[in-house]
């Protein structure tokens, strides 16, 4: 098994052609990348404060330089890169052009790209979002995208269907890492289940029968402690909140219990603050990957 301190021996673990010419499902591609590169996701979140720390201006040129540095340093070794769309949208169309390029370059370098856009709208509008991120040839065609189910899980149907057709994944917010999320996500439905559990149960149905891993993931914060939720959705569990939000890899078993083997811990500032040198970024990612491995490996 290689780790983020070395390039993966497989130059392109995420993108193997299927002999039948059908796209290989995202869940299978992700499992392979997790096995060969370790399960870490590094977020590309070009905060204005990070641009300043890196000696860059808070402008499109600074954004471009920051993003290219992260992609060049890490796309050949971490399983997943997660650009946060908000930090690119902030710069308008020129920022979005930087994001488009980063998504394409990171995918060519072998990382799976999860574009963090947290889209959620009525189904007919959702279909347009799906075209953006999940249609082959779409401007931000990514391996996966984050979505919010809180307009009703069924509103996500156009994204779920297009993702399946394109061999892509969809990561659905379930229990978010921020403290404010609980008032919505932990509210109980008339059936007595939490709203988050209702969403997780939908995800489990989407992933039923998939092997080795379904392509519909849940987002569950690493900051939450024991959730009380049933996280056995047969899909990946994206766990943001490690680093700047206070969680550590050692928290993962307590949050995820027996589902910890499906966890993709996600870290943005906790890695990015070790730039601008590529070596610092790589060392930080490698150290985190080691800590994750130690925390989630069976004793
Ligand atoms: O979907 C996400 O990635 C996400 C979900 C969540 O519950 N909490 C959360 O922090 N995130 C994102 O994960 C990143 C966290 O960044 P750091 O706190 O710097 O590691 C940000 O881009 C957030 O938008």
UniProtKB/TrEMBL annotation:
The active site is at residue 118. Residues 39-284 form the Orotidine 5'-phosphate decarboxylase domain. Belongs to the OMP decarboxylase family. Type 2 subfamily. InterPro entries: Aldolase_TIM, OMPdecase_AS, OMPdecase_type-2, OMPdeCOase_dom, RibuloseP-bd_barrel. Pathway: Pyrimidine metabolism; UMP biosynthesis via de novo pathway; UMP from orotate: step 2/2. This is Orotidine 5'-phosphate decarboxylase. It holds the Pfam family OMPdecase.
